[in-house]
Amino acid sequence: MAQVDYYKALGVEKGASADDIKKAFRKLAVKYHPDRNPDNKGAEDKFKEINEAYAVLSDPEKKQQYDTFGSSGFHKQYSQEDIFRGFDFGNAYKDMGGGGGDDIFSRLFGGSFGRGGGRGGFRSAPQKGADHEMELTVTFRDAAQGAEKQIAFRRDGQREELKVKIPAGVDNGSKIRIAGRGAQGDAGGTAGDLFLIIHVLPDPVFIRDGGDLFVERSISFSAACLGVSLDVPTLEGDKRIKVPAGIQPGTKIRLKGCGIKSLGSNAKGDLFVKIGVHVPESLNGEQKKLVEELAGKGL
Predict the structure, then answer these.
(1) Within the chain, what is the greatest distance between any pair of CA atoms?
(2) Is 216 helix (H, G, I), strand (E, B) or coil?
(3) Is the dihedral of CA 200, 201, 205, 208 positive or negative?
(4) How many domains does the chain have?
């Protein structure tokens, strides 16, 4: 069924009370009831629409989700089976006349409806519960090296806490699946899963490109001419490298295997040190004289 505005479907304002929503539904249900509109496809579609709207707006938790996320966001979390799960059809059609709610919905939606336990309800084959998603922000180093985090989330209206392992190598947008921590299944079905969408904070030192890391180091003009040894940061601590004499600005020196571990394997990327040459903004008298002498010798 196409997504509709549930409030418009029932002809009520967003701030309508539960009683007003129920009155509007019952009035429209009588009007568009299939027994009063035989072989009328338009009335049948309208009847489905108002019942779907009432199943959501009469349920405080579903109504809150709908009001918070809107129609599009709501339907990303709730399937039609989720919408009608727990909806008391017998009570919805109590004292309204015509065919029973269970029988009508069995015909229209193709499900099996019964009255077991004194409560009319949608009986379907076991269905896996809905999957849930939540964002988890981690530091750059936790993403690169792995970590364990304590998370809190809501599941079927209840708050839960859980320790989760962040595997080394996750990146922005990576998904971590936690089996069985989504919504409870229907009719004995298994629970859905919880997916953590990883957001990685930027790092002040490293820039990441896949499994490779990049850092920048600046050396003096004399060091660029003569060569120099310097310490550069890696995820495992500083490493000393040799910068060859005559290196050109922008040259990258590669440290093999000092990057980030690939997710799901032991292979590591590389670290590249981009060399810059520092040009002083001002010189003292002695420095200026020396540079002029070098210039005179072709440097």
Answers:
(1) 107
(2) strand
(3) positive
(4) 3
